[in-house]
Design a protein that fits this description.
By secondary structure, this protein is of the alpha+beta class. It has five helices and twelve strands. It has a four-stranded antiparallel sheet with strand order 2-3-4-10, with no helix packed on it. Strands 1-12-11 form a three-stranded antiparallel sheet, with no helix packed on it. A three-stranded antiparallel sheet has the order 5-6-7, with no helix packed on it.
């Protein structure tokens, strides 16, 4: 399923270099080649160099860090075409450039569906089979979601009060399932000192 998102106006993309846009937290480099617009991941797969700022000529961008060269039409490394940088589908509607964000949003939607079904009581085994994941991967996803919820809660606490007390950390979700030992209390105090 396609999910087209407007990211730029066609006249905002220069002919001689790339333009960076952000879609779903990922920086994407847009390039114009003979009137067509192409989109690739802005990070060079070698060491993460910003491709949009590299030298751009004849549909090939050169990474400014280590001179790796990529064809922006295919994402292929010029000297080894089997190595590629991610490409994204682009369309131009009027003067608006749109990117199909489905490859970026599909994993998030899948994870939300899995977490919702786990919360509703479905087993990790059934969900793993249905989504082509191992039980361990499903449980890791659930654990990451719980940790993320705890960190969001802690961030809100810091934003509201400017500081966190040990008793605040003890209110973290699920604490009643895991009693806090004296040793854990000492570690929490050390964490607060770092905050």
């Amino acid at each position: 399923m396609e999910e087209w998102i407007a990211v730029a106006r066609i006249d905002a993309i220069p002919e001689d270099r790339g333009k960076v846009v952000e879609v779903e937290g990922l920086q994407i480099a847009l390039f114009r080649v003979e009137g067509a617009v192409y989109a690739i991941d802005n990070r060079c797969p070698h060491e993460g160099g910003p491709l949009a700022t590299g030298h751009f000529q004849n549909g090939v961008v050169t990474c400014p860090w280590h001179q790796w060269r990529f064809d922006v039409r295919t994402g292929a490394l010029v000297v080894a075409p089997s190595r590629k940088v991610a490409c994204f589908n682009v369309r131009v509607e009027g003067d608006e450039v749109q990117i199909d964000a489905a490859p970026l949003t599909a994993p998030r939607r899948r994870n939300e569906a899995i977490l919702g079904r786990l919360a509703a009581g479905e087993s990790p085994e059934v969900l793993g089979r249905e989504y082509g994941l191992t039980v361990e991967a499903v449980m890791l996803l659930a654990r990451q979601a719980r940790i993320g919820a705890r960190l969001i809660w802690l961030g809100e606490r810091l934003r509201r009060h400017g500081k966190v007390f040990t008793q605040d950390l003890l209110q973290l979700p699920y604490r009643e399932q895991h009693p806090v030992s004296y040793e854990a209390q000492v570690r929490l105090d050390a964490l607060i000192d770092l905050l």
